[in-house]
Amino acid sequence: MQYPNSQLARFVARPNRFIATCRLHDELVQVHVKNTGRNKEILQPDVPVALVKSDNPKRKTQYDLVAAQVGARWINIDSQAPNQVAYDSILSGAIQLPGIATTDIMTLKREVTFEDARFDIFGSTATQPFFVELKGVTLANGTLAAFPDAPTSRAAKHVATLVRAQQAGYQAYLCFIVQMSGIDAVTIYAQRDPALYAAILAAKKAGVHLLAYGCAVTPATLATTKSIPIDLAQVFTEVS
Question: What InterPro entries does the annotation carry (predicted)?
């Protein structure tokens, strides 16, 4: 995934979850933050950030904030990016779905409704329909990444519906796209969202496949790289 018109700036402040102030070419600009999560460990004063200029002249903000540099690592925080990257990676075979050969996939669509949920990807082979629900991961401590960074009833609802899809004959996948490099394992931040943790344990028991993929990230690009183990027994501690 390539962002056009990417520019480097410095983060200044975030007055609300949708807007940030950044310093671009010695000018303070208001930008749209493409992630409604807290991101407090990422968006720190004066960190380098990547801004993408919009070509829509009617927008109130000219730029989207899509990534930030934490230490030596760039972290993509664009909440829409995992869907596009995963779709492309499933098509190319860079993401392997257990039990589904890439060459057997006949249909692959984005944003398909099942019961009360809209899943990110629907696909099918000649004999097996499947759903893939995607979650972007931006929270990490060293080489351990965790989801979520804030309680999310929506995610628990999606997981419960994935179980019902599995029981109805679909193969269901919950796939975490880790929007950074240098991660060795992914866990669920159980202390942050106990209900989601319980839902994911139940989903795994019901046959829903849990997957995680790391990414190579630059200010202007995002691409999946490798499968990462999911360790639900790992306890996550935020960087203080």
Answer: SfsA (IPR005224), SfsA_C (IPR040452), SfsA_N (IPR041465)
Cβ atoms of 110 and 83 closer than 8 Å = yes
* Angle of the 153-167 helix axis to the 194-206 helix axis, nearest 10: 10
What's the pLDDT score for residue 55?
Answer: 84
Q: Which of 149, 152, 180 is nearest to 72 (CA)?
A: 180
Q: What one-letter code names the amino acid at 58?
A: K
**Phi, psi for 167 (deg, rounded to 5):** -70, -25
* pLDDT tens digits along 51-73: 999 888 888 899 999 999 999 99
Q: Count CA atoms closer than 13 A to 223's CA, side-chain side.
A: 10
The pTM (predicted TM-score) of the whole model is: 0.94
Residue 90 buriedness (CB in 10 A; 0-12 / 13-18 / 19+): buried
pLDDT of residue 151 exceeding 90: no
* Structural contact between residues 145 and 178, judged by C-beta atoms closer than 8 angstroms: yes
Beta strand pairing status for 139-141 and 185-188? unpaired
